[in-house]
Design a protein that fits this description.
Chain B: One of its GO terms (cellular component) is cytoplasm. The structure holds two protein chains of two kinds. By secondary structure, chain A is of the alpha/beta class. Chain A is built from 15 helices and 22 strands. The chains are: A alpha/beta, B alpha/beta. Chains A and B meet through helix 12, strand 22 and helix 15 of A and helix 5, strand 16, helix 8 and strand 18 of B. Strand 22 of chain A pairs antiparallel with strand 18 of chain B.
Chain lengths: ~500, ~400
């Protein structure tokens, strides 16, 4: 058994015996997870907050370590437009940690959750092994999963060149490490997030040579009522537009990257206009760049909910998300899910959902006026998110810009022609079969990068829309992250009274 | 089988436009169904293969692709395995590269003197039955598999053991079957059987009727349900197994390596979790780690006990894998019969219904022989191997 001594960043030692269950465990310390954890702790519950990040905030509120001599948190209020909300949650986190109600374990990657009659068993592994002793195992009566989302990516010729990044990755590099990934930057893909990335990089000193937006602003016109319900979002968007105008960043709509050019790294990109059916036209002139940041929205991280067998649905952006009720409960007893995993919608929605989940999991009233206001805010943000998703779809004809030799799966080096042959020659008509025949999505990243493309291509070749099953085939991971056989060997080996699993009769 | 059914017109009229007519309807497009379809089509029969899901998407997609003689004691299953070896290596040899047929050989290791002695007795029986089984002393094991932990009591080397990639196997067998005239109907669950008195005369799906004087039940774990549609009992039960997959490694493990205890676990009928290590490299560089067996119905959630047992088993044989990372785990349900023998041949209780199911964890390896033998029987010829031990109404399947 690992020693139950807590790690690093928290001053407090965590003397808790891992056999002793927490009332509530929260996985993920982004907006939803932070809100859920502090809300449950405020309700008098013992709370465990597990997060892969070294500092709370998740992807939305990523921030660098404090400069020497300054306090944690000063910087973020300036960096993030809703920094005040983040600062308040962080103060609440520190408050509950200091009173011993909340145990924060940063740097812990959760890779397996299972459920038995006593609640949930959670296995985690240190993100940076060897830095400090960690508690790998925890038990909880209730579980709130707030796993967030990852950049959605689509292959395009040249996308494997160094200098092509996911838009969120380029932003994270700046926000987390104050590093600029390039000097002449092209931001492309679809959605308002591109504006945020372009604005941030321009403010940071990069020359943003363009934002190529696949969608059309006109798509928003019919959806203004949803926008009007969340004025803060419109203000936020206008702020980004103003920033781009100040830096004279050209903004092109119905425009995509047709190909990225370069030998050892990115040298240029060529645009293409989309026609009314979402199909790209011929490639235009080269635009010299040294960084291409591509953003096609976000894919919710569903590994952990799917390990527990939670029911899912397809959201308006085509993502697989967890189905929850009006208290953020999944269909598994004791399980709540909040944030992007229930539908991509941003930090404010995540905070509202996390708060509601924290109330519900702590057994606090979810019927009063405050709870009603929360639900109204959630409904408004979801309506806005839906409008956004519908205005910024993945172009229907995106696969036209693939060439036969365009790599779809980088880990296993599977190209577009191979994926197509799985259908044309071998009759594969679903994502799972394509994956097993071609190894597309079966490498190190287990489909995190190419999963969406694999699902979209498999269904496109079969002449139909992608289904939940196509997406689940690239989203389900019985091991959420790679883990050593040494760590796995401790599973099912719990002392009596802990785990409740039959102990395997393995040799050796 | 005599007489070809005519295209299109289902007997008795009133057929829907989508109705089809064949000589044989194979229910289930896993390895066994695909092999049956391939051999039957090549024998000149008009064949339809139906699957409720994607071809190769059930148990065939969830194993390791074993083509083994080593794990079978003498008896009908070993006879079928040896017959299948000939089919793999002769009739199917020209296609083997499509499904990554690799004659890598198996190495069975014994940790204790007692298990080594039991293994020696097994290899002696197998040799007498014609299997190439070479006894290996403890000092020679390192030359076969350098990563094995020292101190093992001994082992055996089976050069005939082989491996295929089962999903590729199914896809290419069906491609070859289609080239020989077969029709593949994926995503068409069989919801009922067409009957003419006692006789089974075809299958019904939500989309159509498929008329066929011979219906082959190759539905794997669900074979019992197909049999029930004909009113006959076939005790095929799911027996869950997990496999761990490591990150790609440089060639580390050359053979299929497993513990002598595996043979005993395969033959056991206990419902509780059993685990014995089975470790092998693949052409993709990943290492596959099996095996567990437990009867838990169709529970699809990850099992802590099973995953832990797999890792402990692997480290017990190959300690250097300790820091190697597993990137994936998968599971499947072996179609298991109480007497651990498959069911192959016509069902006298429901004329027209044939079975090719219940191969448990050996279905990939036995698929080639099963399909070839069944095609011989369906065309009315003599079979290269006596099918009597696999009869659906044998004593071992009685309640």
């Amino acid at each position: 058994m690992p020693t139950p001594v807590e790690s690093g960043t928290s001053e407090l030692r965590d003397p808790r015996d891992p056999r002793d269950p927490f009332d509530v465990a929260v996985v993920g310390a982004g907006p939803a997870g932070l809100a859920a954890a502090v809300t449950a702790a405020a309700g008098g519950r013992s709370v465990l907050l597990l997060d892969a990040g070294e500092r709370p905030g998740g992807q939305f509120w990523r921030h660098p370590p404090p400069a020497p001599g300054s306090a944690e948190g000063e910087d973020t209020v300036r960096v993030h437009h809703d920094g005040a909300r983040f600062a308040a949650l962080r103060r609440a986190l520190a408050h509950h940690v200091a009173r011993g109600r909340l145990t924060h374990r940063p740097g812990h990657q959760v890779w397996l959750v299972t459920r038995d009659e006593d609640g949930f068993l959670i296995e985690s592994t240190p993100v940076h092994p060897g830095t400090a002793p960690v508690t790998r195992r925890a038990r909880a009566r209730a579980l709130i999963l707030c796993p967030g989302a990852a950049d959605r990516q689509l292959p395009v010729p040249g996308w494997t060149l160094p200098g092509v990044m996911a838009a969120g990755g380029a932003q994270a590099l700046w926000q987390g490490q104050r590093a600029l990934a390039g000097r002449r930057v092209l931001v492309a893909g679809t959605g308002p997030f591109l504006l945020s990335v372009a604005g941030g990089l321009a403010e940071a000193g990069a020359r943003v040579v363009g934002v190529w937006e696949a969608g059309s602003p006109r798509a928003w016109a019919s959806r203004l009522p949803a926008v009007a319900r969340v004025p803060a979002k419109a203000v936020e968007g206008l702020g980004h537009v103003a920033t781009l105008a100040r830096h004279r960043v050209p903004y092109l709509t119905r425009t995509v990257v047709r190909e990225v050019l370069g030998e050892d790294r990115v040298r240029a990109a060529r645009p293409a206009r989309l026609d009314a059916a979402g199909r790209p036209g011929p490639a235009g002139d080269e635009v010299p760049v040294d960084l291409v940041a591509l953003g096609w929205g976000f894919t919710p991280s569903l590994e952990l909910p799917l390990q527990l067998g939670a029911a899912t649905r397809l959201d308006a952006d085509g993502s697989l998300v967890v189905t929850v009720d009006d208290e953020q409960r999944a269909d598994i007893p004791g399980l709540w899910v909040a944030g992007e995993a229930t539908g991509v919608g941003g930090a404010a929605l995540g905070v509202a959902e996390g708060t509601l989940a924290g109330l519900s999991a702590a057994g606090r009233p979810t019927e009063g006026r405050a709870a009603r206001r929360l639900r109204a805010r959630i409904a408004a943000h979801r309506a806005f998110a839906r409008a956004m998703h519908l205005a910024h779809p993945v172009p229907a004809g995106w696969s036209d810009w693939l060439r036969d030799d365009t790599v779809v799966c980088r880990c296993e080096e599977v190209d577009a022609a191979t994926v197509r042959a799985a259908h044309d020659t071998l009759g594969a008509d679903d994502a799972r079969t394509v994956k097993m025949l071609t190894r597309c999505g079966m490498g190190w990243c287990q489909g995190r990068v190419c999963g969406l493309a694999t699902a979209l291509l498999a269904s496109h070749h079969a002449g139909r829309a992608p289904t939940e099953a196509d997406l689940a085939a690239t989203a389900a991971r019985p091991l959420a992250f790679p883990v050593t056989l040494g760590e796995l060997a401790e599973l099912g080996d719990e002392e009596g009274g802990f785990g409740g699993d039959a102990v395997g009769a393995g040799e050796g | 089988m005599n007489g070809r059914a005519r295209e299109g017109g289902a007997a008795g009229g009133g057929a829907a436009a989508d109705d089809l007519s064949f000589d044989v309807a194979v229910v289930g497009a896993g390895a066994v169904g695909a092999a049956t379809a391939f051999f039957a089509a090549r024998a000149g029969l008009r064949v339809a293969v139906l699957d409720r899901g994607a071809p190769g998407g059930g148990t065939s997609s969830a194993g390791e692709g074993n083509v083994l003689v080593s794990d079978k004691d003498i008896g009908p299953e070993l006879d079928l395995a040896r017959h299948s070896q000939r089919v793999w290596r002769e009739e199917l040899a020209e296609h083997g590269h499509h499904w990554e047929f690799e004659s890598k050989g198996g190495v069975v290791v014994a940790a204790t003197l007692a298990s080594r002695d039991a293994l020696r007795a097994l290899t002696a029986r197998q040799r007498a039955a014609g299997v190439v089984a070479l006894d290996v002393g403890p000092d020679e094991l390192g030359a076969l598999e350098p990563g094995l932990r020292p101190g093992l009591a001994g082992g055996a080397h089976y050069p005939e053991d082989a491996q295929v990639q089962p999903v590729l196997l199914v896809a290419h067998l069906l491609r070859l079957a289609r080239a020989a005239g077969a029709t593949v109907l994926p995503h068409e669950p069989v919801t009922g059987l067409l009957r003419s008195g006692e006789r089974v005369t075809g299958v019904r799906t939500p989309r159509r009727s498929v008329v066929a004087p011979a219906v082959v039940n190759a539905a794997g774990t669900w074979a019992g349900e197909v049999a029930a549609l004909a009113g006959v009992r076939l005790p095929v039960l799911p027996r869950r197994g997990f496999v761990l997959v490591t990150e790609p490694l440089p060639p580390t493990i050359r053979h299929k390596v497993y513990a002598a205890e595996y043979v005993g676990d395969v033959g056991s009928s206990d419902a509780a979790l059993q685990s014995s290590p089975v470790i092998e490299g693949t052409p993709a560089g990943t290492v596959l780690i099996g095996s567990t067996r437990e009867r838990v119905g169709f529970d699809r959630r990850p099992s802590r006990a099973a995953l832990g047992a797999l890792a402990r088993g692997a480290l017990g044989l190959f300690p250097a894998l300790h820091a190697v990372r597993a990137i994936r785990a998968y599971h499947g349900f072996r179609p298991y019969c109480p007497d651990h023998l498959p069911v192959i041949g016509p069902d006298p209780r429901a004329p027209g219904l044939w079975h090719a199911c219940g191969h448990e964890g050996a279905g990939i390896g036995l698929s080639a022989g099963t399909g070839q033998l069944l095609a011989q029987a369906l065309t009315g010829g003599p079979t290269a191997l006596d099918l009597a031990p696999f009869a659906p109404d044998r004593k071992g399947l009685a309640a």
